[in-house]
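Usage

Read records sequentially. Each one opens with the input sequence:
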Amino acid sequence: MSSAAPTERAAATRWPVVVAVFLASVAGTLQVGKAPPALPALRAELGLDLVEGGWIASIVFLAGALTGAAGGVVADRIGYRRTVVGGFLCLLAGTILGGTAPGFVALLLGRFVEGIGYLAILVGGTPIAAAAATERDRRAALGLLSSYFPCGMTAAMLIAPFGLGLLGWRGLWAANIALILALLALFLVWVPRGDFGYARASAERLTLVDLGATLARPGPWLLAAMFVIMSVCNFSIMAWMPTFFAEELGFSTTAAALVTAVFVASLIPFMASSGWFIQRGLPRWSMLGAAAVAIGTLPLGVFAPDVSPVTRLACAVPLALFSSFIAGAAYAGVPLHAPDRRQFGAVTGVIVQGNTLGQFIGPPIIAALVVWTGGWAGMRWLYPFVGVAGLAITLALHRVERRLAAGRD
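and closes with the structure output:
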């Protein structure tokens, strides 16, 4: 069999392959999500201030924020399965380094290595899932895959408090080693090497001219910009909500993590179904526009001073639901904005770069706003500006996609 790009040879979607990629992505997200619930313990043991804690939460996204597009190009050329396996190995190395870290710098380095693994799994896994699905099921499969982040974060928020209580934060890091190894073994079994070509390298046919033409398209970068919007909103809230509820409202560590888990879990159904909505004809621009409006308005209630936790959650849950449209809509747009399947990795890498950039800069920005304004309520004024930017990006993307659709017709 040649090393050509994937071709659709199966009569039906290979859902075990899609699930294996989904679980691999969840494994990466668990490494992201284990830090926010552990921040109080980390800050107490290592003597970290609020901003340093923000960097511990967000440094895991630095690799993707800097090199997401390049990572997608590398995955296109060396093979997607190999990229995902390398990502698992980086997760292992980073978790071991972080769990044995004596101080801030070593822990930061471990989180950065975990971030390289997280990036590799995302840019290698998405093209595998796309190629394993038939044309009819592809948007639904990618929409399902897009829910990996809230699924992983919810699991982390639910498991971490109990793990911290039983094992401490270092024991929690150690427990993740066994989980990573188990999901790596499952991936190797469910995604056979070279199976109908979707895991192979495409270097023989994919030229630098092809890649340049793909990366010159505005669509992937606009999708990436929307992911920045979503990530600044959702991950910043995920990262700091446990600390906010503990410090501002007097919740216990366990209760604060569980309330945050409710918020994160509310993302799952809309992310998972967003590709299905697009497949059924709901315009991408309408989903993104609704998300931008929610992001621009609802955080004003989530972080308003002197309101009850019930009111905060009443604003946070619909915020999560509408903003979660962005992930599914963006991933479902990969086939539209890639000239052909050989560039799925490159387009995915651009989108991941936007996602991780927002996740990287969001928590430190929020921490700085809290310090600068003297309280958590000050952070809420960031979001109207973010929402307006999201509406502008949505309109630009709508124009680009209308031109693409007209050209294909």
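Summary fields computed downstream for this record:
- DSSP finds 19 helices and no strands in the chain.
- Confidence is low (pLDDT under 50) at residues 1-10.
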